[in-house]
Amino acid sequence: MLSTPTNEPLAAAVELRQEFLVSSHLGREVELSILLPAGWPSASAAAYPVLYLNDGQDLPRLHLVQTLDRLFSRHILQPFVLVAIHANEERMYEYGIAAQADYNDRGNKAAAYTRFVVDELLPFVQHTYKVSANPAEAVFAGFSLGGLTAFDLVWHHPELFARAGVFSGSFWWRSRGLDDGYTPADRIIHGLVGAKQPHATHQFWLQTGTLDERGDRNGNGVIDAIDDCLDLIELLVQQGLEPARQLRYVQLEGGHHHPDTWGRIMPDFLQWAFGAATAQPLARPLPVVRAQLDQMAELEPELVAVPAAAETAAHLLAVEAAVSTEILNIIAEPALEDECPEALPVLPIQPMSITRPTDGDYLPYYATYIDLVPADVDPRQLLHEQIAEIQAAFGNLTDEQALQVYAPGKWTSKQMLLHIIDTERVFAYRALRFARGDAQALAGFDENDYADNGGANVRSMSDLLAEYAAVRAATLALVNSFTPQQLQQRGTANNAGVTVNALLYILPGHERHHLNVFRERYLPVLGVA
Predict the structure, then answer these.
(1) What are the alphabetically sorted keywords of the record (predicted)?
(2) If you count Cβ atoms within 10 Å of the first and of the last residue's Cβ in the chain, which end, N or C, has fewer?
(3) Helix residue spans in 2-128 (DSSP H)
C-alpha cells in the first residue's frame, strides 16, 4: 500500500519525510509530508502530539520548516509531529463540508475525504510515527477551504480531535448562490454549528486578514471574510462555547488571503497549539487578538504587545461582551523575492442576465471553447473559480517539471500558462474596444510566435502565477462593468465579427480547454497522474 518513504534532513530541529498513502475512499494516492522533531523517535513510551495540516503542498510557501526550526530551537514549542496532507486538482471537491456540497456541487467528495482521514490516515500515522490517538493531543488545521474542512472535521469528530486551527477559513460556503435568493442562513457551517452544542473539549484558533478580500455582501463596511468568521464566533458562544477557555481569534491588519500572511502568523497558532510549558505565554488577555503586520521590520517573527487602539471592524463589538481584545504587532521577516505575492482580490460579481451567444456572434472555430462553459453557469463566475483551478494545477510544479513537454515540439507548462495569460489580455482588450463602440478592425495574433518570444521558460512559476492573478483580477473588473447593451456590441477581430458577449464566454472556455489538455497530457508525463 505504501512506497518507501524518503528522508531529507532540512534543519537542525526538523526532519522531513515523504509518504504516499493509497486511499480507497478517494481513489487516489495521497502524498504526505511528515515533519519530525529532533530526537524522534524518543526512547520514552509516550506518543507525540500531532498536527494534521491540509494543503501540505504549500509548506515551502509557508516557510514552515524554517519557522519550526526556529521555534523548536528556542524551546517555544513542545516536540510534536506535523502531518501535511497534499491536495491535488480535486481540491475544490475533496475539501468542504462532509454533510453537504455547496450550491455549485463543490465539496461533493468532502465526505470521502473525511473517511480517508478517519479510516486511513489516522491509523497509518499513529502506527508509523508514534503519534497520540488522544484527541486532546491531536490538532487539525488548514487554510481557506482547507480551513473550513479542518473545522468541520473537528466539530463533528471530537472523539478524534479536540482543537482546530483555521486560517482565513471559507466560512462563506453556502447552499444557495448570491443571485439566487441567498440569505446568511444559507451558510452551511453556520447551520451545522447552530444545530448542536460544542464539545466540552473543543478549542478553536480562528484567523482573518483585513485584506482577505473586498466583498461586502451586506454593505456594513466589513469584508465578508471577517463577517462570516465573527458570525460563527457569535454562534459558537450562543451554543455554549466558553471563549476564555475555548477560543482565540486573530484579526490581522493588512493580512491577505495568501500563504505569506499565514506563514507570518503561524508562530501564534503553533504556540497556541503546542506551546512549551517553559515558553513565555502568549499575550493576554485572550482569546480575541487584533494584530497587524509590520512590513518594515527586519526581525524574525515574534509577537510583541503594543498599546490598544480603536477597533476598525465595528462588527467585532457584537462579540466584545463575551471575548476580550488586544492588539499585537506581528514583526515578520520580509517575503522571499521569488515568492508568489498574494492573489489579488477581485470585485464581487454583480447580478445581470447573460444570454448564451448564438451562431453569427463568433467564428465557428470558437464553438469549441464556448461549449466548455456549462449552460447554467455565469461565465464571470467561471472566470472567478478558475483562479483556484490554475493555482492548484500549476502552483505545485517544480521548475524541472514546468519545463517538460509531453511530446516534441509542444509547449512547456510555463509556456502554456503564459499563453493563457496572453490570450486573456488580447481577448479582454478586444472586448474593451468593442464595448466602447470602437469600429476599427483588430488584427489577429500568432500564438506560437508569442510563445517563442514570451520568455516563459526563464521565469519562475510563482512569477507567472502572480501575473496570471493580476490579469484575471483586471479582466473580472472589466467584464463586471459591462452593461447588457455593451455585451451585445459587435466588432471585427482577425477578419471576423464577434460580440462582447461571445468574448465573455470564449475567455473561460479557452482556459478550460488548456486545463483539460494539461491534465490529460502533461500530468501523466510529469508523473503526477
Answers:
(1) Hydrolase
(2) N
(3) 59-62, 64-73, 91-94, 110-115, 122-128
SS3 455: coil
86: left (phi over 0), alpha (psi -120 to 50) or beta: beta
d(CA 288, CA 207): 10
Q: How many CB atoms lie within 10 A of CB 126?
A: 15
Q: Is the Cα dihedral 411, 31, 62, 156 positive or negative?
A: positive
C-alpha cell at 317: 463589538
Q: Which residues on adjacent β-strands are paired with residue 34?
A: 17, 83
* pLDDT tens digits for range 420-445: 999 999 999 999 999 999 989 999 99
Successive 10-residue mean pLDDT values, the chain, 529 residues:
38 83 97 94 84 95 93 93 94 94 93 98 96 97 96 98 96 90 95 96 95 85 92 95 92 88 94 86 53 42 34 38 39 38 49 81 92 90 92 82 88 95 96 94 93 87 87 92 93 94 95 94 78
Q: Which of 263, 447, 260 is nearest to 337 (CA)?
A: 260
pTM, two decimal places? 0.60
Residue with cell 502552483: 395
Identify how many contiguous H helices and E strands the chain contains and give both numbers: 19, 14
Interval 309-359: pLDDT, tens: 233 333 343 344 344 333 344 333 333 433 333 444 555 555 566 889 998
Q: Is 417 exposed, middle or buried (0-12, 13-18, 19+ CB in 10 A)?
A: buried
Distance CA 197, CA 135 (A): 18
189 closest CA partner among 153, 139, 226, 141 = 153
For residue 225, give the nearest of 243, 244, 241, 206 by alpha carbon.
206
User: Cβ distance 487 to 354 under 8 Å?
Assistant: yes
The H-assigned helical ranges of 377-460 are: 379-394, 399-402, 413-435, 447-453
Per DSSP bridges, beta strands 28-37 and 81-85 are antiparallel
